[in-house]
Each structure stands twice: as structure tokens, then as C-alpha cells.
Amino acid sequence: MRFTRLFAAAAAVAFTAVAGTPAEAGTILDAIKARGSFKCGTAQPTPGWGYTDSSGAWQGFNIDVCKAIAAAMFGNPTKVEYVVVTSQSRFPALQSGEVDVLSNNTTWTLARDSQLGFNFAPTVFYDGQGFLIPKKLGVTSALKLDGATVCVLPGTTTELNLADYFRANRMSFKPVVIENADEIRRAYFEGRCDVMTNDRSSLAAIRSLAPNPADHVVLPDVISKEPLAPVVKHGDDQWFDIVKWSVYALLEAEEYGITKANIDKMVAENKDPRIQRFLGVTPGNGAALGLDEKWAYNVVKASGNFGEIYDRHLGPKTPLQLERGVNDLWTRGGLMYAPPAR
Amino acid sequence: MSQLATDFTSAKNLVGPPPSQKGGLALRTWRALFGTPLNGAISIACILALAWFIPKTINWLIIDATFSGTAQDCRKSAGACWAFLGEKWRVMIFGVYPAEELWRPTLVMGLFIFMVVASMFKSLWRKELLYAWAVTVPVLLILMAGGIFGLPAVPTNRWSGLPVTLLLSLFGLVLAFPLAIVLALGRRSTMPLIRMLSVCYIELIRGVPLISLLFMASVILPLFLPAGTTMDKLLRAQVAVILFAAAYLAEVVRAGLQGIPRGQYEASDSLGLTYWQSMRLIVLPQALKMVIPPLVGTFIGFFKDTTLIIIVGLFDFLFSVRAPLADPLWLGFSTEAYFFAAAVYFVFCFTMSKYSQYLEQELSPERRR
Questions:
Q1: CATH 1.10.3720.10 fits B87-368, yes or no
Q2: Is the complex ipTM higher than 0.90?
């Protein structure tokens, strides 16, 4: 996996060198407008994040981010073509214009932001490596894992982070290294290791597959930083702005308490100048972005505010049962913070 | 005694007497299974393995299985969850094709299978069949794509599932086959330039994996096309499949050409036939008939290779079977889904295999008794 990622990254760098990054602004946006829809790169089906429901329609957290962008652009959340990318093909696909945005749990890193020629929109999910452990062991903190047997996928940053964490805290562990994600899950459930490590969002998905999910718990400790964010290509700043502010609009709406249900009432009755500006009652924002004045209204109307999207796909009431934690708004002690929309 | 007879006697001494034909079927079976201690041990081991495996499988497949209900009902029982397939079969077969337009791919598949089955009978191999195909192909494409006759347009990125697998494999093989024959003849040609070109093509394409060809077609080709030109992604993948299949089929055809005795070539020359006449009338009919088994092997391989198109973001049948596995309401029923995929692939591949046997019989009147 590591190798293929490296290969894909190297290929993407090579493409940049060959094709060059187009300097003229507006090219991506013009193509999208001419097409009448934009191409959103999504990952292979993953519970909660992106999957097809029983009618064959795409659903999920990452999908709703695509819908928000489409709503801002066209006033219509269905103006999206979903293109499935793999971890190998995602960067070349973005480079070559096969997709206009990646919304597929890509971690924001320095090299991708600079060398690969990408721009990262605001983080939509702060992920990080964590631990999944059976409740009956009574462990409440990762610092009490000294001597534990740990199931881990080989050749990933996950494995390196694990070794770093245990060494930094002067603890020992026995790794159980299994290549295949499905097999490692079985190994954990069969008790071949005490604890399993992976990104916490993946652990939540794995936990939901347990015969009895309530028997397992994801420890609160986070041992690495994995900010997941939508990605666009260098070369069209206006398009980047639109993607950025589509995400910010979701956060801003949650902060103002605007939901899919009450938005029409808000437009009609709310006299708060910030909300009137945000929803386009007072014009200005739309023109600044080159969008319709009702762009933010359309974003929220499409699939609700950030909190609603989170709760629908990832939150405590879903099989994934991910608490908001650091992904809550800054007003409630989280990291989600949108600049003022004015 | 002649030399031949001596050899025969010594060979007979070497292999021992033929197995006894005495006794009834039961006795012979008994001897075959338990005749020697080793055979007996192997037989007992096999019977024990089957006795353990068969009831377990039947329990899982039928007795403990849940045939309808929700995921919760399924999780309560130990058996297979066929309710999952009941809920998801449309998505598994048609993938992300718009739900309200599903009658179109259904009709496409029906028409497609009907035409393929019709084309299988030798008695129907007439000009009319070609005309029928010439009408069917545009109809299939119009039905899938829409955009005219009041059918809503469905872009190719929403074509998915079994129709895509079938269309991609059939068009891939049908179009690759003539190319393969040309390449095979080229490789056997006496003209150095043509021979070299054919060899280069075949070896180059066979030297790289299909996945890298698909990758090239999907992400690298657009970089070299002039800005603004786009070529449909499914079409690019189709072209990659055709080019790849042609190289493999060409080698199979060449094996057939080399298997034709030299006398056949010389005889057709002495009849005064031109190169193309002799190939068309004398050599190719014999050569192709001879290589039907490896040809079908290659066909079956390619039918299954189409699963690789997921690497470039196209949705084949295997993808659309796997996609619903991520539905949070129905997590954990992967065995049932893969069982379904395996069953469908088996039906198609087994049909191809059986048909090739029929075709071999049908095309070899000289061997029929």
C-alpha cells in the first residue's frame, strides 16, 4: 500500500512536470460551468463516508460535501458526477482533470499541498490514529497499554506512529502484523490481539461490524494528526474559493443555528444582520464569490448544516457512533471554525 | 517377431494387467475406493471432509438462512442473509444507474442475451443475423445512453454493473478478434516490415499489465490530448481492452496457423488461390477451429479481467456487488454478496465453456460418427 501510494505520488509529480500547471486563472471553473456539473472524486464505498443506498444513489459524509459544492455552484445539489478514485489513482486523476475536487478522506500534508500542486479546502474531519479495545479489559487510556498485543496493518504510517508512541511513553508492545484489512478485523474479533490500531474513523467502522459493538470501545487517545479535507488543483483560485466557502458555509450555518428545517423561517423573519448577509437577504457575498446571492442558502437547503451532516452519517446515532470531539464547533470547544462571511 | 511387437509385449509387462472387470458395479466401486490401504485412507479422509462440509454448507445456505426481513433479523441467525440480496439485488446488478430508469438496462441485458444466444446456433448463421446485430448495437447504446426519443440522458459514468461488464467484454472480444487475426497473419508474414510491426505490437502489449494500460488510457492520455478535447472514459477503457485482448488472441491464432501442415499452404498455392483467398478458404477455417479451446480460455479470462476497470473509476459488476456492502444499515454481509457475484460469473463462464464444446463438435463434421 505504501509503495503504491509512493508510486502514485511520484507519478503525480511527474505529470506536473510534463503537463505544467496552467497559469491562467478560471480554466477549471469555466470548464465546470460549460459542463453544467462538476466531477467529485469519491473513495471506494466506505460505511458512513460514501456508499450507494438501495436505490443506487450515493450517500455519505463525503458525498454531502460534494452536494454542498454543487448547491453553491449551481443552486442544485444533483449537479455532481461522482467518480470513484482509489488511493493509487486519486492524485493523477485530480492532476489530469478527471475530477475537479477530491472528497475522499485525503489527509492534508505539506508535500501534497506544495509539491503535488494541490490546494486543500478547510478540514472537514480531524481524524487521528487511535485504539480499539474490548470493554472487558477495563482499559480507559492508551497509556495503560504496556505489554499489549497490537493488531496493525504493515507498511503504513500507522505502524510507524504506533512504534513512536510506545517508545515515547516507554512502553512495550507485541505487534500482530496482518496485511489484509478484512483479516485483521477477524483477527481482532477472534482475540488474537488485545487491541487494534488504525485511524479512529476506520476503527469506528470496524467496531460497528462487531457481533456486539457495545463490547468494544475506541479509546479517547489520538496519537497522530490526520486532517481530512477536500482537495483541488493549483491554477484556479476562484474555484478554490468556491470549494472553501462551500465548506465554511456548512460550519457558519451550524454556528448561527440555521438548519435545513428552519432556514426558510430564518430568511423571512431573522433580523440579525450577519444572518441576513449570510443567507443573501442582504446581497454582497454572492457577487464577491461570483455566485448567486442565495449560494449559502442553497448549500444548507441541500443537506443541512455541518452538524446535521455529521450526525446523519457519522454521529452517535449512526452505526459508526463517532462523537463530535475535536470536530465540534469552536464555540463548543472543537476545532471547527469558519472565518466571518462578509 | 517384429520390433514393434516386442516393444508392445515389454510395455505390457511394465504396466501390469488391466483392472479386473469381474464383479458388479458395487464391487468394482468398492475396489476402486478401498482396494489398497492407501486408497482406503484417502477415501475415508475425503468422505469425512465431505460429511463435515456438506451439512455445514446446507445449514448456512438454507436451513439457518434468513430469506426476508431486516439486517437485525439476519444478525440473529447464524445462516446466510438472503434478505440482503433481496434488498440490494437491483444495485448489485445495475449499480449506480438511475433507479427510475432501470427498465432500460434491464431491456438492454435481455436484448443482448437474446442476440448472443441466437448467434450461438450454427443454423442461424446467415446474413440476416449480421443485419440484426447492426440494428441491435445502436439500439443497445441508445437505450443505455438516452438523450433522444424522449429518453433522459444517462452519462456513461452512471452506467454500471452487469450491463457494463457484458458490453465491455463482448465488444472488446468481437472487435479484438479481427485485429488479432491480422496481427497473427502479420507475424507469420514474409514481409519483414509487417512482421516486425506485428511482433513489436504483440510483445509490447503483452509485456505490460492490463491495469497499466487502463491507467494510461484513463489518466495519462487526457494530458496529451489538446486542451478542451475529451474522450469518453468508458470508450477509452474499451479501446484499452480491445488493444490488450488483440495481442493475446493474436498469439492463440498464430498457434493455430502454425498447426496447419505445410502441405495445405502449398496445395492452396498450387490451386492458384491468392494469399487472401487461401487464408480465408483454406488456412483460417482449419486454424481457428483447432484453437477453439485456448480461444475460449482467453475469452473467459478477459470476461473476468473487466473487473480491473474499477481502477480507473468505472463500475463493473463486481464493483456494484461490493458497493452496497458499505451501507451502514447492512454491514457485514460480504459472504452473501461474493457468493452472488461468484454464481453470476460462473453461469456466464460455464456457458461459454460448454458452448465451445458444442461448437467444436458442430464445426468438425469429419470427426462426427
A1: yes
A2: no
